[in-house]
Amino acid sequence: MTAQEIRRAYLDFFKKKNHVNIPRASLIPQNDPSTLFTSSGMQPLITYLLGQKHQDGTRLVDSQTCLRMQDIEDIGDNRHTTFFEMLGNWSLGDYFKDDQLPWLFEFLVDVVGLDPSKIYVTCYIGNNDFGIDKDTQSAKIWQKLFSDKGIDSTMVDIGSEEDGYKKGMGEGRIFFYDGKKNWWSRGGSEEFTPIGDPCGPDSEVFYDFGLNHDPAYGEFCHPNCDCGRFMEIGNSVFMTYFKTDKGFEPLEKKNVDFGGGLERIAAASINNPDVFEISLLRPIVEKLETISNKPYQSHTVSMRVIADHLRAATFLAVDGLKPSNKEQGYVMRRLIRRAVRYAFDLGIEQNFFEEIIPVVISLYQQDFEEVASNQSEIIQTLINEEKLFRRTLNKGLRELDKILKLSTIVSGQDIFKLYDTFGFPVELVLEEIFKKNGTAKDDWQQGFDNLMNKQRQLSQTAAKGTFKGGLGGQSLIHKKYHTATHLLYQALRDVLGNSVVQRGSNITEERLRFDFSHDKKMTDDELRQVEDIVNHQIDEDLVVSFDEYPTKIAREEMGALGQFGDRYGEKVKVYKMIKSGADKPFSFEICGGPHVDHTAQLKEDNKRFSIIKEESSSAGVRRIKAVLK
Fold first, then answer.
1. Angle between the N-to-C axes of helices 327-345 and 375-406, in degrees from 0 to 180, rounded to the nearest 10
2. What angle do CA 312, 317, 321 make, to 5 degrees?
3. pLDDT at position 464 over 50
């Protein structure tokens, strides 16, 4: 099966099991100050796993696009990508292990067609110190599933990952690991589970590609080995417990959270451990082969990096992001520039995005309406950034020529300036020095590293204020600022016109940040008008409430506002803010919460809404930062 066929089959399979197919969330999280990107399938649903009711019921299924930049240095091997899709099915207090594991096995073996003899699974070994039992229930379910296929399913206690390298796997099929591998909580293993959080064991599924074990990773192989033989393709989390100050208590309503990597399942379906050979990545590689006139086999790393980074950048553009020098926009810019840098390795020194990006779009447009409907804007955004970077590179080359004319030694400070000011990738600087001087000087590294470390420290200091707060903050101040963003959105439309569309928001305990479409700097008078409108609505003590409506009716007939790039299921939750006795609400907006009950709560302790900054976020997008003080 192609990856596209697997995605469709998965959604259809669980819809037949009475799951509602919910749309993917944006890669840019809203009102979540703890992270830059949606990095897991669970992330957009965490509030529902914590107990909030979902408007589509207790059985949900989706395919969630994700971005993890911590893997960027690993891009180039056969399995890591910054951008990936997680197939997810969810039970919110409904079914549990007896349904989840057989359904998953049925899908992988009977629908996708994976060889069950190449499937291995792991379960939680238990922890006597915390009074948590070994997950023998999941193991016995797996044992029966394998037995029904005529496969012996010996259970083996491994313990830690390190123990696995010492013991090996023997003739095992089902393996028990400790809490560092088979326990889920937002804090990690059992001892780091936050008080007040749900948590529980998980059961992972691995596919055996049959490669020989590489002893560089450890003496013996086991499912969690990194040698390449095994690849994790799915994980069922069973939220069984609730952490209190006294320990772990059973949850009254248990949840299931499954996440399966689409790209990895697709690689298993063609029995090839190289995810860049699947149908969502191979066409991009083939186009690179055509453009460069070079084969994938001899330029593997460069083609993998370009294919991954441009797929990620394309979906960031789909979700309305523009390259910039700040936060998410900076990451997008970095992805694009790394792709251009690796294109030099292929001898591609002219603009090539206009040939590659349409290939990426073609792979997704049938299954994601937002990709199909925004093609021209996506392509133009990325082409413009490529052209800008190539101009920047030319400036950097001229600066390098100046440096080399003054001295035969290029210092770490020189290289850092080329990197930091001109966006010149370090590898490219060294290549240019080598071409011009015949050798790359080796005395630059320490000076460069010192400057990079200083920059990282400054960035970390700045980030502490930007991302303070918990995942999906639920405190009163979060609710106040969230409510204020609704008032701000409508006030901006009142002052600037209905062309204003929300392009993002971020809330901490200190301030709100709101991005919106507008093509020029706001005047002082416009900012004052917006402030006055928001404060007037706070004084009016609007009642804040919500109702659920069919999405089409809410948007097209009732005029509910939303955010650019957001996708919705069949029903949506719409918050209205209305003065008691009034016929029409001031604010009527699709949103998941949380909010205060009355806008007058925003002025407690004599606080007023105040705009502290208005600036450019990216091309055609402005940003407002505001506080209650």
1. 70
2. 110
3. no
Tokens of 326: 């700040």
User: Domain limits at 449?
Assistant: 289-466
Residue 170 in any domain: the answer is yes
Q: Mind listing the pLDDT tens digit for each residue in 588-598?
A: 998 877 789 99
Tell me 128's DSSP state.
G
Q: How far apart are CA 351 and CA 475, in angstroms?
A: 48
pTM above threshold 0.70: yes
Query: Could you give the 3-state DSSP secondary structure of residue 564?
Result: coil
DSSP letters for 440-489? --SSSHHHHHHHHHHHHHHHHHHHHHHT-S-TT--SHHHHHHHHHHHHHH
Distance (Å, whole) CA 473 – CA 151? 47
List the one residue out of 221, 347, 363 whose CA is nearest residue 292. Answer: 347
Amino acid at 226: D
Strands (E), 19-101: 20-21, 59-67, 83-92
| Half-sphere CA count of 407, side-chain side, radius 13 A | 7
Among all chains, which residue has been given the structure tokens 């603009």? Answer: 351
d(CA 23, CA 21): 7
| Averaged pLDDT, 500-516 | 87
What does the pLDDT read at residue 126?
Answer: 96
Answer yes or no: do 525 and 615 share one domain: yes
* Torsions phi, psi for 310 (to 5 deg): -75, -30
Residue 581 domain-assigned? Answer: yes
What is the per-residue pLDDT for 89? 97
What is the per-residue pLDDT for 241? 93
Buried b (16+ CB within 10 A) or exposed e, 569-604: bebbbbbbbbeeeeeebbbbbbbbbbbbebbebbbe
H helices of 38-187, in order, are 46-49, 97-106, 136-148, 161-167, 179-182
* Residue 350: predicted pLDDT: 84
Whether the predicted pLDDT of 31 surpasses 70: no
Cross-strand bridge partners of residue 563: 502
Number of domains in the chain: 3
Express each pLDDT in 559-577 by its tens digit: 888 776 566 777 888 999 9
